[in-house]
Amino acid sequence: KRSSARIAGLPLPPGPSQLPFIGNLFDFPQQPEEWKGFAALGRLYGPVVCMRILNKDIIVLNSMKAATDLLEKRNALYSDRPRFPMACEVAGLDWILAFMPYGSEWRRHRRALHPHMNETAAKSLAAMQEVLTARFLRKILAAPEDWSEALEWLAGATIVRAMLGVDVADKNDPLVKLNKHIVGIVIGVASPGVPWAVDWLPFLNRLPSWLPGMGFKRQAAIWKNEQLRCREESVAHVKRDMAAGTAVTSIASKMLADEDADETVVTNVINVAYLAGNDTTLGAMRAFFHAMVLHPVSQREAQTEIDQLLGGARLLSLEDRPTLPYLEALVLETMRMYPVAPLALPHCVTENDEYEGMAIPKGATVIPNTWAILNDPAVYPEPETFRPERFLKARRLDPLMPDPRNAYFGYGRRMCPGQYFAYNEVWLLAATTLACFDILPVKDAAGKDVLPSRALSSGLVSSVSKFPCRLIPRDRETSERLLSLV
Ligand code: HEM
């Protein structure tokens, strides 16, 4: 039986029928690729699906219209997060902006980040991104088989350079290590599908650690110490350099130089940028290589467009973006087909609401199904086909085509604050790599192409797994000459 209506006699959104107490526990889509399970429920019940697990209402949004109507147009009601007791209260990760409840603290942190990450500010970081991307290309010219490690280096080097002004070492960089340590802890406590009893029964956190079954508290205490120590160290590094007069300008140094700045907020947002920006951007960049291995015709088309613009005379820069519509379409199509956050992050509704005759109960967790939105055949016909042309009309970007970034980077007031910085990085990587290399599949012993798996991993960040590919310089001499100038 479905639970009875609770708001002015309106029914809850449709969904599978519920068992007593556990509700829809057995209907809940399972990893891997649980977004496909949510999309299947959407085909059965409609774009807004309601489920209940134990004591929690869960509303899944499977269409852009529903996501826009609620998360964007009613953002005053839909910008909260569900509570994450294990991550925030037990493991002390409540300083992470992405987990913060909607309110004044959250707003203070977003405001601190905004001047440094908005669209205009992101442009001023592009020159640094161009230099690091050129270093990446030099690395893969020298050792193409190590492209995956070089890409990991690029993702870490860019965010650390932007936030802390530090040039990351080629291997074993201490600041990258610190940040990775925090990421590991966040993955340990906050990954979807990691069941912590305390997340469902928060009173467990009030029981003493020595009781049987309270092992999670002892483990979390260790994680808490570790992550708080690491988080202080990265900003302390910048402060030391500033005191010695050797600091390179960075977002941290600019924030700290502001007399009115609250140091705790600075430490929080500087650290969250690596957490939220490293693996996501890496996943997006790896997806680009994957798409190119699988779609040589699109790759060739983008290279022709680039060659016509450059004629091998210079390297591409971000300023070339408007003159390369096919390349832009190719990057957008890659983002559409490889969403790094297929279920975004959950939102939470703060008041009882009504939508198209259905009750949305206060406190419900709202899961936007970005994967379903970006694979909606009514918007993107034959969504399983990689087709950059879908974004073009008469060889220009079609302004009527919905931009996948409006889902890819999340929704409403919680939309990703790093989106411009991240997009520029992925675009630069795609543009400059295609200018210099052919990206081809590896061959097996019989000389046949080995194509990598298309499956997206589940977790806080989704992407294709690491895979081998062949990177063949298109014109080694010219590439080496141009890259040596950067
Ligand atoms: C390709 C790369 C990236 C993708 C796909 C991505 C995607 C997302 C998504 C889907 C959300 C959740 C939005 C929502 O709740 O509706 C988010 C939140 C967030 N992202 Fe990104 N992101 C990327 C890169 C970055 C970078 C480089 C930063 C660095 C500043 C960053 C910082 C954040 C933060 C701090 C939040 C939490 C915002 C909040 O809760 O208010 N992200 N991102």
UniProtKB/TrEMBL annotation:
Query: Transmembrane stretches, by residue range?
Result: none
Tell me the protein family, please: Belongs to the cytochrome P450 family.
Pathway annotation:
Secondary metabolite biosynthesis
Q: Indicate whether Heme appears among the record's keywords.
A: yes
Matching PANTHER family: P450, PUTATIVE (EUROFUNG)-RELATED (PTHR46300:SF7), P450, PUTATIVE (EUROFUNG)-RELATED-RELATED (PTHR46300)
Keyword Metal-binding present in the record's keywords: the answer is yes
Q: What is this protein called?
A: Cytochrome P450
Keyword tags: Heme, Iron, Metal-binding, Monooxygenase, Oxidoreductase, Signal
InterPro entries assigned: Cyt_P450, Cyt_P450_CS, Cyt_P450_E_grp-I, Cyt_P450_sf, Cytochrome_P450_fung
Q: Which cofactor does it need?
A: heme
Q: Name one Pfam family in it.
A: p450
UniProt binding sites for heme: C416
Q: Its Gene Ontology molecular function terms?
A: heme binding; iron ion binding; monooxygenase activity; oxidoreductase activity, acting on paired donors, with incorporation or reduction of molecular oxygen
